[in-house]
Design brief:
heterotrimer, A: mainly beta, four-stranded antiparallel sheet, three-stranded antiparallel sheet, 1 helix, C: mainly beta, six-stranded mixed sheet, 32% strand, globular
Chain lengths: 87, 253, 206
């Protein structure tokens, strides 16, 4: 009933949308969860919501760390779920 | 065809055309496409490309594939596994002919790369087609004169599904510092001396370099494989930040 | 490149023989059922599942799984349209209409003009009540006669098929009535607040 049409690389596919926003390599950055203080490498996080956008969840507590959407009217980024990003 | 670390992230990556020069049949379900892109800037082992197909009515399908060739090779190699009822893989495997152009962009990804510059031991753990970017790393390592010790743990369903089998075994035979461990999960030949079944905690403990040696660890394959192996490695005492992962397939869906 | 390169011999799997008036602009018909989730799939046990209607912080009604299954059931066949451009025709769903939910809590009129659907995984989406009454919206528990798979929003999801499918929130747990419209998960991040596929209202600003 449900399906995956083809193999898709995720995780680092995050890089391309977010990379348009950040100057240093976003996948190498560390991100700290506002809710539980867990720190992860952005590149190690599973990618959700493609192709609507990018949603990153804390590997520990699953709360949303960061969201991004690319639209014809502009690129949106929200990261209230992250205490910080460190490059 | 080389690239430097600094060129990895800051460029805007544009679509370009690549000509298919050759096809290598790797296993019954897997082929490698050897491509010559119009303007390839070079890449690092572990990076990938996006492929885009456009039908005459404008419909587009896009997928990502890891680069299997090392930066030293003249042609760009993409290894494609047939996905049942897939939209893109049947086209790449059955329709695309030598001389055809394929639209791609890259290289993409600065996180999963390995270049050997660091010198620490290298631990590569592959599930199925996840061996592709790890093969780029091994091929690159094979070209360099100084090599830190490396181990490849490679899980496949059966012997005939092991991609690059002859090449990997040949590399291991001529290089004392490379160890290869095969795990066959569904079917094993009668005289099989390798591991039977999935990669488990015991096999990891027996074959990965100990945490004290600070190995660079790269795990690649289907999402469940990657998450399971990463979990086991953390249980074995490896620092989560030393474990680099690349998942093939959607997460949580 | 000035022109898009056409891939020789590539045919979309998604093109079927379809009457044009069933496919909104910019959409392609698929026979697959692609999965798109904003987060990990929640593993929900029906024994622990509850569903609630809320107004101003108080509960209008709350149902356990068995209680919800005992409500009047409706089956519909409809087309669904994802903002990522796929459309799926003639999908069959079964569940409880929004009208029947209102009746079940003793309301003849909706108590507010808007709702926010709150779903497991911290997903939210806002819908005008006018787009739910009159059979336009349901909370569904079966797809093609079988329990909805977790990846597709099981055990229960919202279904508002005349709007883009992100409005049909997976894993819905409560519907909160609102006097003033508020934007949900995607609506607050660049997607259109209403989402009419026939007007191609994909993004905020369309």
């Amino acid at each position: 009933m449900n399906n995956v049409s083809d193999l898709v690389l995720d995780g680092n596919a995050t890089a391309l949308l977010l990379q348009q926003i950040f100057a240093p390599d976003i996948a190498l950055a560390k991100i700290r969860c506002e809710a539980c203080d867990c720190v992860s490498s952005v590149g190690s996080l599973a990618l959700y919501a493609a192709p609507m956008g990018v949603v990153l969840h804390c590997a520990d507590c699953e709360s949303v760390l960061m969201r991004a959407v690319d639209t014809p009217h502009g690129l949106w980024l929200e990261m209230t779920g992250a205490r910080y990003l460190r490059f | 065809m080389t690239a430097t670390e600094t060129s990895v992230s800051s460029r805007r990556i544009e679509w370009q055309l690549a000509e298919l020069r050759d096809v290598v049949i790797e296993t019954p379900r897997v082929k490698s496409l050897l491509l010559r892109p119009a303007g390839w800037p070079g890449h690092l082992p572990g990076q990938h490309v996006d492929i885009r197909l456009t039908a005459e009515d404008g419909y587009q399908a896009q997928r990502s594939y890891s680069i299997a060739s090392p930066p030293e090779d003249e042609l760009l190699a993409l290894t494609v596994e047939r996905v049942k009822d897939g939209e893109v893989s049947p086209y790449l495997l059955d329709e695309l002919r030598a001389g055809d152009q394929l639209e791609l962009r890259g290289p993409i990804g600065g996180y999963f790369v390995w270049t050997g510059a660091m010198g620490s031991p290298l631990c590569l753990i592959a599930g199925g087609a996840g061996v592709t970017p790890l093969m780029a790393m091994l091929r690159h390592r094979d070209r360099s004169s100084s090599r830190a010790p490396a181990v490849l743990m490679y899980s496949a369903r059966s012997l005939e599904d092991v991609i690059y089998r002859d090449e990997i075994d040949a590399m291991a035979r001529r290089d004392n510092s490379l160890r290869v461990v095969h795990a066959l999960t569904r079917e094993q030949p009668k005289d099989w001396t390798g591991h039977r079944g999935r990669i488990d905690k015991c096999l990891l403990a027996a074959n990965c370099f100990p945490p004290a040696q600070n190995p660079a660890i790269h795990v690649c394959g289907p999402t469940t494989f990657v998450e399971s192996v990463s979990g086991l490695l953390v249980e074995l005492g490896f620092d989560p930040f030393s474990i680099k992962t690349e998942r093939f397939g959607p997460s949580g869906g | 490149m000035d022109e898009t390169h056409i891939s020789r011999g590539f045919r979309s799997k998604r093109q079927e023989q379809t009457p044009k008036n069933r496919v909104p602009p910019g959409q392609y018909v698929t026979t697959d059922f692609p999965v798109l989730s904003a987060g990990p799939t929640p593993q929900i046990k029906v024994a622990d599942w509850t569903f609630a209607l809320q107004l101003n912080g108080s509960l209008l009604g709350k149902w356990s799984w068995d209680e919800f299954e005992a409500l009047p059931q409706t089956t519909i066949k409809t087309d669904i349209h994802c903002v990522t451009k796929w459309s799926k025709l003639d999908t069959t769903w079964q569940g409880v209409t929004f009208d029947d939910l209102l009746k079940a809590v003793g309301l003849s009129e909706p108590p507010a003009p808007y709702i926010m659907a709150h779903c497991d995984g911290a997903y939210t989406t806002n819908v005008p009540v006018a787009d739910l009454v009159g059979g336009r919206g349901m909370v569904v528990t079966r797809y093609e006669g079988l329990p909805i798979a977790p990846a597709h929003g099981g055990p229960a999801r919202l279904l508002v098929p005349h709007l883009y499918f992100w409005k049909s929130g997976k894993w819905v747990r409560r519907i909160r009535f609102m006097q003033k419209d508020e934007r949900g998960f995607w609506e607050s991040l660049g997607y259109h607040n209403y989402g009419d596929p026939w007007k191609e209202q994909r993004y905020d600003g369309d």
